[in-house]
Amino acid sequence: MKSAHIRKKLVVPSSWDDIPRGDYYRAALEEQLQPWWSKLYGFHLLKIGNLSTEISSEDCTISHQVNVAPEGDKVHVRGDPYYLPFEQKSVDACLLCHTLNYATDPHRILREVDRVLIDDGWLVLSGFAPFSLLGVGKCIPFLRKRQPFNSRMFTQTRLIDWLSLLNYEVMFKSRFQVLPWHKQGGRMISTHLPALGCMTVIVARKRTLPLLPTAKKMPARRQSIAQPVGANKSYRKDHED
């Protein structure tokens, strides 16, 4: 797996308000997650990162929800996403809203999330897509240093590859918000051309058994060469005569 670790320090937004049209992105993401809140179950939900803490999850069946970030007004536990202050396999679900987009080492965050998640736990993550109108903005010199163009953008396929290596089963994936400057994201074009969406969301579950079990290897049976019946008897009889 190609390393995604970088040394460049990224400017992490403390709120969706720090991102131009951030309220559009947050509303669109909340709409995508709305059908899934009732399907998540358990006792503890971690919302990791400042952007995750501002996502509405009132309809989630998990009542105990903990906001985790290094700092912020809505933070319940001050903690580093690279070193989550929780025991192994103690959390039922984790929400990572654009957390990987502003991570210098996204693999490390995923491994830490995997550590605290219980078996069959839920992982919900979202991010900006590179092959979109937002991705084009990264190629424009006077835009690439502004939000959200200065964030890291990973393809949905790459994110799924990372999850598969950790043995996660993808339950849902989507691309949306094709027109980032439009409040509704261009509903018509988003419906017919979702692959151009500037945002992606993935809902996955942690599995304990391999998703693609290997066939059991059976030892090859040694074939014995059968001797023709009566061959020795016929040979002796011919020589005695």
TrEMBL record:
Methyltransferase type domain ranges (all copies): 76-125
Keywords on record: Methyltransferase, Transferase
A molecular function (GO) term: S-adenosylmethionine-dependent methyltransferase activity
Annotated region described as Disordered, given as residue ranges: 219-241
One GO process term, biological-process aspect: methylation
Protein name as annotated: SAM-dependent methyltransferase
The species this protein was found in: Rouxiella silvae
